[in-house]
Design a protein that fits this description.
Helices cover 74% and strands 0% of the residues. The protein is an all-alpha fold and 409 residues long. The longest helix is centred in the last third of the chain and has 49 residues, at 260-308.
Length: 409
Amino acid sequence: MTDTPPGDPGEDVPATPSEPAEPPVMPRGLVVVLGLTGLLVSTLALQQFSAIVAPVLLALILMIGVHPLTGILRRRGVPQWLAASITLVTVLAIVLGLAAALALSVVRLGAILPQYEDSFTALVNDLRATLERLGVSSQELHDLLGQIDFGQLAGLVSGLLVGLASAFTNLLFLLFVVVFMGVDAVGFSRRLERVGAKRTAVVTALRGFVQGTRTYLIVSTVFGLIVAVIDTVFLWAVGVPLAVLWGLLAFVTNYIPNIGFIIGLLPPAVLALLEGGPELMIIVIVVYSAINFVIQSLIQPKFVGDAVNLALTLTFLSLVFWSFVIGPLGAILAIPLTLLAKALLLDVDPQTRWISELLSGGQTEPATDDEDEPPPTDRPSGTASDPPEATDADTDATDRPARGAQSRT
């Protein structure tokens, strides 16, 4: 038997331990580019399928807002199937009620607007006479006023309500989605608890989204009803037609951040101009602005600020973004959908959770004890303030529960 020379392939050379190779790190610039590309593709896809996505998102937000009714009924001794059925019927009543109210309002508005064509013509003639007294030439007046048409004005006001009603055009599909979500919501809480043992960060982010959305919906609904009642009574008192319609519009637009007040003000202000002239229009604008400033700008943000906790710029951009993606319904659901995107994209990952702090608009959380703790000072050892030295037994007792938790994990 011959000896195998060193270095021969047949020789068993003991393997030397090598350090594990670190995974390659993707450049941060490339991560940003890929993220923006994915966002653009996702946005275009959502816009392409907005006819399906919009009813699904509306049904999701409605179920989140009304689902606590099931728990309330269960605590009062109502059977599970009956509590779920009552919750489902409540959601369906909300959807059908809003759809019927908006459809009826559009029909009534279309019937009443032709009555004001003469008033509109008189207002245009008065405006022409006033401008001529100010020295504006007749040709300039003709070019300017010739572009103003009552049909265009009526179409603008009607188009506003039609745009809101278009959210319920796919009503049958919306009803089916609501029914199926209502059935699945019965055992969803138990399934969420089982998932929470393995995906704590994901469940925590989803719970935060649900809690924030519910608080936002409750506060916006309560204050929307208050504003709607005050506006309806005021418009009825000053003689503006269709006061109930404009109160309903004020209630719906209360869910639209930043510019909802302006959308709810335009139609009654235009109708007040046609009904009672510039004086009545000014009164409507002043009273609406006062109501909005007191209730929607001073009182309501104090209740909804902690739940939403979004910067003012972000709320406006979310309004523009979701309106572009899924249409008029996106303006109404802008805040809940932004909370959902924030929970799924930022709050679920500890490495991106810091971005949520940058996007917050309310007061930030108080600093931790480590941040508030003053720097250590030199003091003689052995004083009463020094902590006792940990012994080996104490260390073992401290590490034992942690090792047990790791083994269970």
